[in-house]
Every structure is written in structure tokens, then in C-alpha cells.
């Protein structure tokens, strides 16, 4: 009896030690009707997909949004962790902050230089951890390349993916299976070559970014 | 100080006080906003997809400290000029 308890305890300890962030990459997928490799497009003509950013300093808080989201991601429904790939981008010129002059400044060469670098993007490189929250919901830790202001940096992102098979309910938004993606992460503007004298005072170096997008596999 | 000078000073002070009161009531913003963010109602499908409420920008002027200070400087300048213009002139016999 004591030996059995010891074996069980050791097995639990081993499992916890091996997979501290959930299931190992390469084993987690969605339990939905769909199967095989599915590709989702996040270009929404109605502009409902949104990315947000926030800069907080002692002087000011700047909230911004962009609704010009583009990009595709694909994965094998039953094996998301090992097969997930794709890129999500926004148009640099589409960022709005509520102040017309500030929006112009953001697009100017001294900040994000929208003319020279019209896209801000994230390309998935690796899935580092998967947690199954429900049959159609996965929490992932992603490692990818964030491209801003002409500079690429590797950053980690925590994302949640929700899969809905096509139904009369999903059709109220758009046709096809739908994939909801939410993600939150931070970037340092100085690491992307943004060097402005007000960086750190009026605008924070650390920017909080939120991604709230829905893609369809019928596009 | 004559009556006209007193009116000038009190009018100037009142205008400055009102502008600061409007600035304070609109949220003590450092910079003037032409638009404000409003939260849109969340649809059922968005809830199922785990999407948080979206935001939309609508036109709405919100006075910032920088415009308030510019207005204050203009009011002070005009008040000073008017104060000297309304000065009693001595009659030379």
C-alpha cells in the first residue's frame, strides 16, 4: 500500500515538474467538429477587429486603437501547438489616440514613420506552452517576431484562442468557422529604434498592447 | 482704480476661473482631445468568442490644460492693455 502511494505521489510530482505550463507543445488541440488544417483570415471589412495600446506616464495616459487588422493564421485543429503558424498585422497609419495632432505625430518619421514602415506585425515562431481551458478554448504562450519601425525583435505573447464551428449563431457575425483571438503583451519602444525626447516623460517606453480579433476560415 | 478698471479685472478673473472650471469638470486632461473613446455593447457572438468589448472614437471636444493656459495668457494680456487704457487721464490746465 505504502509503495503504491509513493509511486502515485512520484508520478504526480514528475508530471508537475515536466509540464509546469500545462500540456506539452504538440499534444493540444480543439475538440470541435472541424478537422485537418484550417486557415483563418483576420481581415474584417467592417473593421470590428481591434488592437489597443496604452502608454502610462506620470504626466499623461495615452490610449490608442487600430481597427485595420490583417493577416492569417493556420493550424491543425487537433494539434494546434505543433502546427500553429501565421502573421497578424495592423496598418501603422490606422492608429488613433483621440488627439488629431498626436495621431499625425505618431505617423511622422520622429515616431513610427508610417510612410516608410506601413505595417506593424507579429509572426508566430514557436508555441511554448498550451493549456486547454475548454473543448474549444486554448491558452497559449507564443514566441514570435514583432516588427515595428523597421526593426524586428523576438517577444513572448500570451494568447487565448476560441474556436466556434459554423452555425446560425456564428453566421450573425460572418460565414465560416470562427476563431477568436485575445492577446496581451508589452513592448519597449526604445528597442524598436523609436528615440524621441519625450519618450519616458510624455510617452512611456513600455507600451501595453491588446489584441482582440476574430477570424474566419471562409474568406 | 476706477470703475472700468475694476470691471476689467473682475471680468478677466471670472473668464479665467470659468475656463479652469471647465477644464477641471472635463477631467483635468493635459492635452485637448477632439475625440473620446466609447465602449460598444458586446454582442452574444463576441462573448462566445471570448472577445472583450470594443472601443470606438466619437467626436467630442475635451478641453486640455494647454488650451486653458493659452486662453488665460490671452485674457491676462487683454486685461493689462484695457487696464492702462481705462486709466484716468490728468487734465492739464
Quick gist of this model?
Chain A is mainly beta. Chain A has helices spanning 2-18, 80-83, 100-107; strands spanning 37-41, 50-56, 61-66, 69-76, 85-91, 119-134, 137-148, 151-164, 178-188, 206-216.
Task: Write structural notes for this entry.
The complex is a heterodimer of chains A (219) and B (93). Chain A has a single domain (24-216), classed as Lipocalin (Beta Barrel). Chain A contains three helices and ten strands; from the N terminus they run αββββαβαβββββ. In chain A, β7 and β8 form a beta hairpin. Chain A is globular. Chain A has 219 residues and is mostly beta strands. Residues 12-26 of chain A have low confidence and may be disordered. Chain B has a domain at 1-33 and 61-88. Chain B has helices at residues 3-25, 44-48, 65-85; strands at residues 33-39, 55-62. A two-stranded antiparallel ribbon of chain B has the order 1-2. The two termini of chain B are 23 Å apart. Chains A and B meet through β8, β9 and β10 of A and β1 and α2 of B.
Number of helices of chain A: 3
Shape of chain A: globular
Shape of chain B: rod-shaped
- Biggest sheet: strand arrangement of chain B: 1-2
Structural class assignment of chain A: mainly beta
CATH superfamily of chain A: Lipid/polyisoprenoid-binding, YceI-like
Number of domains of chain A: 1
Sheet with the most strands, sense and barrel status of chain B: 2 strands, antiparallel
Order of helices and strands of chain B: HEHEH
| Overall mean confidence score, pLDDT of chain A | 89
The averaged pLDDT of chain B comes out at 93
| Helical residue percent band of chain A | 10-25%
Largest interface (C-beta under 8 Å):
A-B, 27 and 20 residues
Enumerate how many helices of chain B there are, as a single number.
Answer: 3
Give the end-to-end Cα distance of chain A, rounded to a whole number of Å. 59 Å
Strand content of chain B: 15-25%
Give me the CATH architecture of chain A, please.
Beta Barrel
How can the largest sheet of chain A be summarized? Answer: 10 strands, antiparallel
Amino acid at each position: 500500500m505504502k509503495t503504491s502511494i509513493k509511486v502515485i505521489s512520484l508520478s504526480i510530482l514528475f508530471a508537475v515538474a515536466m509540464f509546469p505550463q500545462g500540456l506539452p507543445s504538440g499534444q493540444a488541440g480543439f475538440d470541435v467538429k472541424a478537422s485537418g488544417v484550417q486557415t483563418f483570415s483576420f481581415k474584417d471589412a467592417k473593421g470590428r477587429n481591434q488592437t489597443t495600446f496604452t502608454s502610462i506616464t506620470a504626466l499623461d495616459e495615452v490610449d490608442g486603437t487600430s481597427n485595420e487588422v490583417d493577416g492569417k493564421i493556420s493550424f491543425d485543429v487537433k494539434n494546434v501547438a505543433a502546427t500553429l503558424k501565421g502573421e497578424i498585422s495592423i496598418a501603422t497609419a490606422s492608429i488613433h489616440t483621440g488627439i488629431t495632432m498626436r495621431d499625425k505625430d505618431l505617423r511622422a518619421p520622429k515616431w513610427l514613420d508610417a510612410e516608410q514602415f506601413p505595417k506593424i506585425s507579429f509572426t508566430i515562431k514557436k508555441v511554448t506552452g498550451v493549456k486547454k481551458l475548454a473543448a474549444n478554448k486554448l491558452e497559449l504562450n507564443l514566441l514570435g517576431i514583432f516588427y515595428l519601425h523597421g526593426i524586428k525583435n523576438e517577444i513572448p505573447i500570451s494568447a487565448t484562442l476560441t474556436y466556434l464551428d459554423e452555425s446560425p449563431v456564428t453566421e450573425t457575425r460572418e460565414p465560416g468557422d470562427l476563431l477568436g483571438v485575445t492577446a496581451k503583451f508589452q513592448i519597449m519602444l526604445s528597442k524598436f529604434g523609436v528615440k524621441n525626447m519625450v519618450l519616458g516623460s510624455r510617452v512611456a517606453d513600455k507600451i501595453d498592447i491588446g489584441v482582440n480579433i476574430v477570424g474566419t476560415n471562409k474568406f | 482704480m476706477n470703475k472700468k478698471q475694476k470691471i476689467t479685472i473682475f471680468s478677466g478673473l471670472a473668464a479665467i476661473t470659468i475656463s479652469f472650471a471647465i477644464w477641471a469638470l472635463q477631467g483635468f486632461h493635459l492635452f485637448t482631445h477632439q475625440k473620446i473613446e466609447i465602449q460598444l455593447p458586446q454582442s452574444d457572438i463576441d462573448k462566445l468568442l471570448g472577445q472583450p468589448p470594443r472601443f470606438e472614437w466619437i467626436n467630442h471636444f475635451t478641453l486640455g490644460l494647454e488650451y486653458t493656459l493659452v486662453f488665460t495668457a490671452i485674457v491676462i494680456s487683454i486685461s493689462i492693455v484695457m487696464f492702462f487704457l481705462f486709466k484716468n487721464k490728468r487734465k492739464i490746465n
